[in-house]
Structures are given as C-alpha cells and as structure tokens.
Amino acid sequence: MALDGKVAIVTGAGRGLGLAYAQELARRGASVVVNDVDAEATAEAVAAIEASGGRAVAVVAPVGPTETAKELVSTAVERFGRLDILVTNAGVLRDTVLWKMSDDDFDTVINVHLRGTFTTVREAVRHMRQAGEGGRIICVGSPTGQRGTFGQTNYAAAKAGIVGMVRTWALELQRAGITANTVVPVAATTMTATVPYFAAAVRAEANGEPMPAFFRHELGFGTADDAAGLVAFLGSDAAASVTGQVIGVGGDRLQIWTHPEAALTAHREGGWTYDALVQAWPTTFAGAAQSVGERFPKLPEEFEPPTS
C-alpha cells in the first residue's frame, strides 16, 4: 500500500472533506490521528476507519493553541511511533460584509485557519526535522484565498495567508526533505450547501445520486471523496518532488494555480509621477488590470434554483 507504515494527522477530520482525507489516507495504509472539536463526530470517524481495517486515534481539541499542536504531534508519536504527514484542514466561517464584520468574526476565523495552520505545522516540522526522515505538509486553501469572495474578508485573508506560508515553507524545508503544498478543494460540504448556485449538485449528493456532469466537469465541483486522492498522492513518496504548489481539485478537474507574477512591466525615466500615471494608465496599464472574484458560467436552466 502506498502509505503503509506512514503516520498522518488530519485536523478538522470529524466530517466533510477532513473525514474524506482521513479515510483515504487510512485506506492507503497510513495510521491516522483524527482531530476535531466535535467529540461525537471524531469518535465516529475513528470507528469508521477501524471498521474498514485501518488504524486511527482521536484528539478532540480546537486548533490554534500551541498546546493542541503539541498534543497532536505527541499523540502520533506515542501511539504510532512516528509522524510523516500533516493535513491542516480545520476551519470555520463567520461570513459578513466588511462594515458589519466584528472583531470576533475576524479573530475567530484567523485563529482557526491561519494560526491553527501555523502552530500545527510548526510543531510537526520540529519533529520531522529532528527525526530526519522527511515529511509531507498538506495545507488546505480555498478559491476565496486566490480570487476573493464577497462577504469573506476574514476567510480570504486566512486562506491567502496559508498559501503565502506554504510557499515560504517549501523553501525553508527543502533541505530536510519535507514538502509543503496547498490543496484547494471544491466540493459539496456544509460550507457550500447554502450557496444557491450549487443547490442542484448538493441536492444530488445528499440524495445519493450522481452529481450532474455540468458541475463535475465545467465547475470542478464534486464530492469530498473526489478531493481525497490528491491528498493521499501528496502524502506519498510518489510526490517527493512536488513542493510549493497550489493545486485545485474538484469533481473531474485538477488545476495547478499560478503563483503571482507581474502582468505588465513598464519603465519611465525619472519614475512614475502622478501626471505620468494619469496620462499612461488608460493606454499602457488598464488592459493588464486583474479581475477579482470567481466567475461562474450561467447555470443550465434545469439547475436554476427556484425563485420564491
């Protein structure tokens, strides 16, 4: 088995995408530390993995605090003898527009997504470097962190920050044989269930029906299980040369996101004064200005949500 003898930690693994990642890693032979704040969901996830012949142990704790990161790593090492793979998936949403977003809305999302990723990766890397056998860091991003989404200042900041950290870690960890990558999944989960555009796909998933091809192929929107194969691949020896990447996955689609590059470079002797910019912007620069937000194709009529 591809991950036989490996040990993985998956945060936010009680349900949804995190559960799919944990189950796929276990199917491929890894022993898994299942983390979530929901004790019942965590216990059920561990039981499901064990019922399928896998090995798993639960850690019920919120990510963010350094104490949780230490507990996750120590549990992996004490129960299974090592740590090879970390998947930072835990997350929350507190969506609202900028002028209505409270300090608590912002801080809660940043603490779980951004700080939680930082503290957990830091502790895992400390162990991996000392063990000297390499490792795999797999952090979960979002299209929102790449393109922006209305009403998600906190979430966009956290997910964009994760990508920035991962690119830095890929540089810092290369000599230790530790890879760091970001997965950007698009799937039917509790986070997407309330979006009217995806209603037909989410309904099909909930009813156990095949998801319409429009969503799987055109939008790259699928089930949680559709994203799990990429996580297992990035955790394996087959991906030893893959690091610093942002990889989108969903439905039938896989994407490698570009790293930010200058879209246009222009020079002017003496620099760019206000007057020079007023004159040059419409003809020289405006055509290279970048769009924001995700742009979806028009839904086929049969998938249009009903109007009230």
UniProtKB/TrEMBL annotation:
Gene3D superfamilies named among the record's database cross-references: NAD(P)-binding Rossmann-like Domain
Keywords: Oxidoreductase
Xref: SMART domains: PKS_KR
InterPro entries, sorted: KR_dom, NAD(P)-bd_dom_sf, Peroxisomal_Beta-Oxidation, Sc_DH/Rdtase_CS, SDR_fam
Keyword Oxidoreductase set for record: yes
Coiled coil start-end: none
PROSITE patterns assigned: ADH_SHORT (PS00061)
Oxidoreductase found in the keyword field: yes
Record protein name field: SDR family oxidoreductase
Species per Swiss-Prot/TrEMBL record: Micromonospora parva
